[in-house]
Amino acid sequence: MSRQEQRRTDERESEYSINSLSDSIKGMAIDTLRLISQPFTEEELNDATPEQVLQRMLSTASYISTTSSLAKKYQRANEPSAIRLFEELGKGQCGTVYGFVGSSTAVKLANYEEKYKELGEDYSAYIKIHEAIQECDPDHEISARLPKAYDFIGPKSEFWNEYNLLFDPQVKVRGYGLTLERIFPAPFPVREALVDALLPPIIKRNKAKFLAKPENKNCLIRLYLGRRHTTKVQGKVQNLKLQNFPLHVNEMEDLGLDTERFARLMANTLAIIHWGAGIDGDDIEFVLGSSPVQNKTPTSKELETLKLWEMAEACDRKFTQRTMEMWVFDLNECSPVTNDEAGIEQLVRAFNNNDPYYPQPGQSNENDRKLWSVFRKTYLDMSHRFTESMNPGRFIKTLEEEPSKENSKNKRIDSLAFFE
């Protein structure tokens, strides 16, 4: 079946008001409305190149339909009579994430007892940041989407009485963990386009086999605005994978993506984390992932006019229809930060120790300098919605005066992205 037969897009509506926003935030809202007002029609999809698919879908403004085996599995499991299981999605230093098949729920379990406390701090950070986002951007119009943190579970939680048998027998259950909203992977047409547009010819010649591997189905796209890079590498191609796929700023430019919009989303999010939640943002991740299309939840007044079947239809999740969005997650390394000189130093360390998601100051490339300027202004505008202190400006000034580790990395093409 062709790529064109496996996808379609729907036009998305926005009721976002921009009346009370600062100029930079108004610009973001206008960008969003502009993108949404340009639907990718079925005829355009039929004639689209891989680069055009990525340009449209990674703009985060379109829906896409997919008939991949993964999407079908989740759609079937979403049926009322289906038996649902937890499947492993990925493993980090702190915990392992399991997805509840047929739902938008995931569970993060500590890898071992020494990580229990860190997992608790992870949950606390989610709650603090969620509260800060709700204060200024509840609909995630100008910031990255944060997975909802539902519950923190312990050995005696009722969760285990109901769900422990749904995990693989080798999984150590009845420990500590947290339940979260799941970030779904990029849908099949996007994964296929990534291969066609960015990977070496030997991978393209074996595309079907490559895309069928589990690690290439769980594809989240890391947005590296702070590094210029190429994934068109030769050599150890057997190690290439789409899981945690690194998309670098030069590749975004080549694809015609709006890097300034990505920079504003990141800047607003980081400012909210720093000055709204009081957290340093150490080792957080920014990715493009998908979520099942769900009709907008009706208001209480609208519900009064709906019949039961209309209510059900309004809340229905369609796992074969996905929308791509920027997400921020992985908060277990985050720590509280004070609004003083020591806090500024902590923020600078966290910024420079992170993967190269953010634009970097002091770059020789003109586009990089422009992107940093956009990030800088947006960050300061959002920061001053939470604090009147001069510390956000001091943080930015310190970054500009102290070269980061990424400044040297950006001077070369690093071919090790897939082996990190």
TrEMBL record:
Region spans: Disordered: 401-420
Residue stretches of biased makeup (Basic and acidic residues): 401-414
Location of the DUF3669 domain: 326-389
InterPro entries: Znf_prot_DUF3669 (IPR022137)
Protein name: DUF3669 domain-containing protein
Species whose genome carries this gene: Fusarium venenatum
